[in-house]
Amino acid sequence: MKNNHGYHYLVLGAGRQGSAAAYDLVKFGNANKIILADNDLERAQKACSRVNRLTGSGLVEAQQVDVTDTTQLKNVLLPADAVLSAVPYYHNQAITRAAIETHTHLCDMGGHTETVRAQMQLENEARLAGISLVPDCGMGPGLVNTLGAYVIELLDQTREVFIFDAGLPQNPIPPWNYALTFHINGLTNEMDGQAVFIRDGKICYVDTLSEPEMIDFPPFGLLEADVTSGGTSLAPWTYLGKLERYENKVMRFPGHYEWLRAFKKLGLFSEQPIRVEKQTIIPRQVYHALLSPQITFQEVKDICIMRATGKGMKDQKQATVTVDLVDRYDSTTGFTGMERLTGWHCAIMLSLQAQNKVQPGASPVELAVPASQFMQELKKRGIDHHVSWN
């Protein structure tokens, strides 16, 4: 710890999730100072003012930082105990190297499994620097895999783990029945490519939007779940040789995925340029320009739903355990459920890292701290869960 009284935190990125993380760090992170940094100073200042107003503190300070400027980045990292990267994933490898050089604990919001794998290769450097690296935090993949680890902890022996999650509008508007609560490119990335699961005890790659199923989730009724990419992060490799199955699907209101399957088949997710008459266009950019205004709203009142089911042995008997977690838009703070579960998952991890409760080196989120400890931290924040057995 670089300070004697409380912790100095740095949050890179003053958008939705970064603001929610800064709020949580003020409330629960034993902070003495939080720098909320962004390339856009005005955005950082607005976020800073909001968090200070909501918390009644003056702990959060705005700063303009260009994360691509290595010298500037290291200067803001140097006095910090721990840094949260809430900027696009393609900056995270360079930020990780800078954090190692400045001996600053790091977690990030990830979003790209291959980048996370590259960060994990810095295990030795991080350990020698005496810091912890925990990439890919947030609601998904972060909390998704924390819940997966939790059902594994609850069972004596685990054979299979199935995880479902959803971020949905409380008042869906047809035809999309969806509201955007994070960057649209991240949404499309989830719907493109392949997911990584464990099936029959082996790593298995499954095309997105290829295996729909209906999930009954009272009191919300039937929801449609399907394969998306990135949700399992490094967990399939963590549990390879230990589990027969490990899978994650994302839930939507019925009918929503039919649109996305059609868009994918048309090639609208592609980032490869195509010629249209005399112009060159990138299909994904056109798709985003058309779709984003349809699913973006001034105020989003959402609900986030998560379920993890584990199958195995408990007390020498076959058992199935299910953990359900639900969180909603908070009218008091104005934070959405997505912001709370994403930003707060990161903030919890970051505060545990600052306290040196995560071992030095690089850890996947499911191994960084005991999942039961993490669930208790969520409970302190009013986010509870329900456990059922059969």
Characterization of this structure:
- It is a single chain.
- With 390 residues, the protein is of the alpha/beta class.
- The chain folds into 2 domains: 7-138 and 339-383, NAD(P)-binding Rossmann-like Domain (Rossmann fold, 3-Layer(aba) Sandwich); 140-337, Dihydrodipicolinate Reductase, domain 2 (2-Layer Sandwich).
- Helices cover 37% and strands 28% of the residues.
- It has a 7-stranded parallel beta sheet, sandwiched between helices. The protein has a 7-stranded mixed beta sheet with strand order 10-11-12-7-15-16-18.
- The longest helix has 18 residues, at 337-354.
- The protein is globular and about 50 Å long.
- The mean pLDDT is 95.
Q: Could you tell me the strand content as a percent range?
A: 25-35%
Overall average pLDDT: 95
Question: What's the number of structural domains?
Answer: 2
Radius of gyration: 20 Å
Number of strands: 18
| Gross geometry | globular
Separation, N- and C-terminal Cα atoms: 45 Å
In the CATH scheme, the class of the largest domain would be: Alpha Beta
As a percent range, the share of helical residues equals 25-40%
Uncertain segments are: none
Strand order of the largest sheet: 3-2-1-4-5-6-17
Q: For the report, how would you describe the main beta sheet?
A: 7 strands, parallel
CATH topology (level 3) name of the largest domain: Dihydrodipicolinate Reductase, domain 2
- Identify the CATH architecture of the largest domain: 2-Layer Sandwich
CATH superfamily of the largest domain: Dihydrodipicolinate Reductase, domain 2
